[in-house]
Amino acid sequence: MLPPADSVLWQKNFLLGAATAAYQIEGASSADGRLPSIWDTFSATPGKVLAGDTGEVACDHYHRWEEDVALLDMLQVDAYRLSIAWPRVMTADGQPNQAGIAFYRQLLQALRARGMKTFVTLYHWDLPQHLEDQGGWTNRATAFRFAEYADMISRELAGLVDAWATLNEPWCSAWLGYGNGHHAPGKQEVKLATQAMHHLLLGHGLAMAHLRANDPSAQAGIVVNVGHASTTGSRAADRRAAELFEVQNNQWVLDPLLKQRYPAALWELWPDAQPQVEAGDMAIIGAPLDYLGINYYFRSNVVSDGGHGYTEVPLEGVERTQMGWEVYPDGLRHLLVSFKHDYPHLPPVYITENGMASDDKVVDGEVNDSQRISFFNRHLAAVDQAVKAGVDVRGYFIWSLLDNFEWAFGYERRFGIVHVDYATQKRTPKRSARLVQQFLAERRSK
Length: 446
Known about the structure:
Elements (H helix, E strand, L loop, with lengths): L14 E5 L2 H4 L12 H6 L17 H15 L3 E5 L2 H4 L8 H16 L3 E7 L5 H4 L7 H17 L6 E6 L1 H10 L10 H25 L4 E12 L5 H24 L5 H5 L11 H5 L5 E14 L5 E3 L17 H13 L6 E6 L15 H19 L4 E7 L18 E4 L4 E4 L1 H15 L1
Parallel strand pairs: 1-2, 1-9, 2-3, 3-4, 4-5, 5-6, 6-8, 8-9
Antiparallel strand pairs: 6-7, 10-11
Helix pairs in contact: 3-5, 7-9, 8-9, 13-14
């Protein structure tokens, strides 16, 4: 994992970090006053998660956080991206839960003591169940409850965070949670998804004001997932289908944030599914960002569905990961360059997630994850190409530090650069982790 000499990766101010999320690693789902989340409910529902897995124990990071900080310290990464579990730090009546807050305070202090920058996401999908019982993100009031949470936790942890992110991947929360039901809370209606998205983004905008007021020395932004589409179809309708895929996957989120409007083509895809928008909402949503987090994983090939939308037609003979996702690094370069063109006020970018799942096994104390190493090298090269094309990319976070609870796929899919034996909780750095450590040591020596 040694990039070319002219790669942006050699610049010491280009952050190379690792990322995790609370529900995926923490476990301790009822410890110290933590309330149930929608993912506790969803994963406990038969048939929703592969093998009936839940996040009840996960990687037991809540009790083993010191060991995991030591792993980060061993790797000598520049930064660590984590999320805070809203149900762990706030009571149902909106008061701080000091036991839960203390966990994050000591974790952030330990990271700071080791010289790592801290990127903290406020919402990585674990909505308190009591709010879902009142309509969740389809209820406008949830946006204001989120802002209250952001206000409280940014006061409590001010000075310990280098960069706040309000939301992780609102597309997933809205579409997978309320549109097709693949994720918690498992609702399936397009109109619910568009309304949930609007309230997620409104909550983001409301929270940004609190983050800036309470922790002015920290950056404040948002993390979005993006997707690239191609078509093997030859018709104009197929080319339009690929455009509509990117409207739904990218512009649905980015246009409100960066242009203060929803893309008109979205309603071509989903007629009569417009959300209720109140006066002033779009200005709140479009509050200036200090940075934009980009999560990228794969490309999709689509053709027209013969109606208003598209249908996916997987390409044959391409490299895929254990998730079935195509490995297509140039999609990341393409999207970054196109975003710079499409959004004149594009803020500085961090690649906040990029990685792949593979069926990793420990053999004689080692895990040789050669496909992941190749994956990282090619995607980092794509980032370098985007930077050389003029895109202001300032860092890259590996997804993920640890093998963990992969949402609806449970524990079968392993994204970590550190292997976790879930029966014993033994951590084993994979070869990819060793190469990250080697590269960073070499960069520091220059």
